[in-house]
Amino acid sequence: MKPQAVKGTHDVLPDEQPLWRHLLAAVELELSRAGARRLTTPVFEYSEVFDKSVGDSADLVVQKEMYSFEDRGGRQLTLRPEFTAGVLRAFIEHGMHTLPRPVKLWSAGPLFRAENVQRGRYRQFHQINLEIVGLPQALADAEAVQLLYRVLHRSGLRRHHVRLGSVGDPQDRAAYNAYLREQLAPKVEALSETSRRRLELNPMRVLDSKADQDQALLVGLKRPIDFLGEGARAHLDEVRGYLDAWGVPYEIDPAIVRGLDYYRRTAFEVHFEGIGAQSALGGGGRYDGLIERLGGPPLPGVGWAVGIERVFDALAQEGVAPVDEDRPALFLVPLDEPAVLEVTRLAIALRDHVRVEHSYQPRNPGKGLKEADRSGAAFAGLRGGSEREQGVLQVKHLASGEQAPVAEGELLRYLLERR
Ligand code: HAM
Question: Which of 291, 318, 345 is the last residue in one of the domains?
Answer without folding.
Answer: 318
